[in-house]
Structures are given as C-alpha cells and as structure tokens.
What we know:
By secondary structure, this protein is mostly helical.
Amino acid sequence: MSRLFGVVLGAVLVVSGAAGAQQPGRAVDTLQKQLLKLALDNLDQAICDKAKCTPATDEERRNPPLSDDQVKAIISVGTLSTLAEHCGLDWKRRNFQPLMQIHRKRMKMSERQVALAGLLHGITMGVTGNTIRSQPCTQKLKAEVDQKLILK
C-alpha cells in the first residue's frame, strides 16, 4: 500500500504544482498547506453548530485552527478513506465518523475546528480520488486498507 500511497502523493503533487524543484519533504509540506488553504477558503460551506460556518478570518489564515500534525493526520485519513471507498469498504462508518468523534470527544475541538477537519478530509478525498481509482483494488490492497481503518 505504501507504493500506491507514493504514487497518489506524487500525482497530487504534480497536479497541484507543488513538486517543482522542491525536495520531497518540502513538497509534502507545500501540499499540506495548499489543501489547508483550500479548506479555509471553503470553510463557509461547512456546517458549524447546525448552521453554515462563517468564512475563515485573517487570523485563522495566519494561524490555522489545526496544527501541522493534525493537518497531516487528516490528509492521511482522507487518503485512506479514498482507498477504502475504491475497494468497497465502509469508509464513512469505519474511518470518517470515528475521525470526527476523536476530534470532538478526545481532542475536545470546537465545532469550527471539527468542521474544518471534515472539510479537509473531503477535499483530500476529492484530490486523491481519480489517481486512486486509476489503479485496480487488488485483494491484497483491500486487506491492507481494511486493517488500517480506524474501526476494525
């Protein structure tokens, strides 16, 4: 699965223009920042406390409400959700919903932070979807993805 994840990441970097002449680690950081920026740009499309969220503030753009490690983890879970969807596994119940519960209950995030996390997860699925779907879901891949989902 790590090979497929590498292919997906490479394709996303090329499509996003993040690869350029950068080193791989910097390209990944750039991609994470671009995906977070896209989520912040669309925050007003997400739901906060049963109503649409207000647009991201200048302060939130300068100091995002999610840490770099949180963004990285959400992007990883979003990519895994895309793989699970591709392989016919229940990504919503076994990956997305637990991710949101972890953010709400264990991490005690605000509804706005949870909304941003959900939006980032969805954007990641959209960005990685075509690349992932271009490869067959083998039984081996399906078994590997099945083992990595949050709920077993």
